[in-house]
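User: I want to check something. If I give you two sequences, will you return the structure for each one separately, not as a complex?

Assistant: Yes, each is folded on its own. Here is the first sequence with its structure:
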Amino acid sequence: MKIAILSPVAWRTPPTHYGPWEQMASNVAEGLVKRGWNVTLFATANSLTGGTLQAICPEGYEEDRELDAKVMECMHISLLMEQAHEYDIIHNHFDFLPLTYSRLIRTPMVTTIHGFSSPKIIPVYRRYNDICHYVSISNADRSADLRYAATVYNGIRPGSFRFNDQPEDYLLFFGRIHPHKGTADAIDIARQTGHRLIIAGIVQDERYFNEKVKPRIDGDKVSYIGPVGGHERDQLLGRAKALLHPIYFDEPFGLSVAEAMMCGTPVIAYNRGSMPELVRHGKTGFLAGGPGEAAEQVAMLGTVDRHACHEWSMEQFSVQKMVDDYVKVYEQVLSLPSPSPAACQDVR
């Protein structure tokens, strides 16, 4: 069995700090490699894998702004599609663009939909409903227009997030700084409760950061430490009293939410999108309707068992669980009849 994993090329796979889609492509690839699968990862040339790496892009276009994103994406996708016949199955983590090749190749393609950047892209997915196999990353993030093979939750590596039952007295905001993520709300919640807040993540919206966040950073009660990865991320998440996740959009999945809970850290999140699937209200954290309610829930953190947070995340959001679920999808797809010659054309 030969499988090709198609990762995005905005960042290295796995990313050094930010790049959730790249991280999931890596986690799937490495999880399969550990099980003895023949895996080829299509990613940037500076990517790391225990399988075979194929690359045409030297590095992520977000890491080298001299690279043209559209050119890199075009060459990257075509690199795989020109040799698609060499693989038994393709697992696409690259959004909708690779779907446009699906009638030109015979290799079945599983596509993980990591979120809809806009309703305008749904017609592309809908056009290939009959030949592609879609996987949602939460039940909340599904379109009624599409047919799905399964929901598979994102999986994280337990070895990268150690359980900590002795937290420090700070709250944490961990994620991209953008109005959708509610960084300013996290500051409000921390101030209402008299807690120190640490903010970690990339600045994705400079105007929002400069107007709503930066003026309130004092280095004491509110600190911004930039993007964090690796061991530092593990330490930061594990030592927090709670992760604040005050989102203003229907988030398909929250990696930092699963990561925090794996460390034993409870999560206080706004009740939107996939959050009810990730956070067990009253058990692994709380779901809030706004900053006032979230502030009240900070006082209730003592009722949350950090062991329960860890066990829930291990059970639902580990790489092992994710790979198990994807293998079931692959087996299901490979058991289906091959598409008719009229449905696709072989480019060999």
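And separately, the second sequence with its own structure:
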Amino acid sequence: MKKVIILGGAGFIGLNIAKYLIAKKNYKITIADNLSRGKMDSYLEEIISYENVDFIEGDFTKKSSFNSLDTDYDYCYMLASVVGVNNTLKIPSEIIRINTLLILNTLEWLKIGAAKNVVFTSTSENYAGTIDKFGYTIPTPEDIPLSIIDISHPRYTYAVTKMLGESSFLNYSKSYGFNCTIVRYHNVIGPRMGFKHVIPHLAERFLVNKENPFLMYGHDQTRAFCHITDAVEGTVLAIESDKSNGEIFHIGTEEEITIEQLIKTTGSFFNYDGIYREAQTFPGSTNRRCPDISKARNLLGYNPRFKWQESLEATLEWYEDFFQKGETAFETSFEDPTNV
């Protein structure tokens, strides 16, 4: 069996990677996480109940936590980081501290030959400044120059740490002899994706806050949404391909839609018959985002299967069920941009 370590494996994407690998039946999986989401929920409990899955709880901003891990993994998925627009605006110093320590500590652990193949998960936020400032090509390929519009703006602290991660992982891999691939995710959505992103915010605002009029923050901005299953398959292809070492891949879809279209489709799903009004967006939010995924298609055989409407509906169904049960957000929920 192939040995796998998923750092940050209790999060949305990490747990779905574990679930995907469990179904393949030829992996021994270790999920390592600090449970920053606040609890061991039923979904995580189900995943770690499998015989071929271990769970290690630890604060991996501390080097000593890596002593609890093995040092002979075939694959290392590095997903651990703090994310979320509200977090960048409210605790930017913690974004810098936590994400930087996670990156550096993981790299020092990898120096000893702890894993043969590594994927560092990055973000489209890295090139948002290039799109907005210089009008770069959309859909956007991997060779786009990375840039920050305002280095002092807290909104960009997450992107700064991911740029550090991309450079560090690629260069450490050359120096210390492990294979490394970078994947940049583009608006991955699906059931149990947390409460820090636009679609959970919309579900909460329609179902719990029952807003009317409904304010459409950033209505004319665009995004391309990717189903979690497609993102997971792309990530596994990237780390296991013999063509991916030293490469960067955009993982997402090329279906670009406006935020207004997203909001009104969500409203229709929840049978909303109120008024919509345009409103400002979150500070520092990029105007357009849509990846060119031809490199992943050609080198990895990546072929996303879900249309954005299917992805959205599957996500909304989960949150509708969640809120109808009387559950409350287990992470920071929606906050008006004017209050952040």
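Because they were folded independently, the notes below concern the second chain alone. The two ends are 48 Å apart (CA to CA). The chain has a mean pLDDT of 94.
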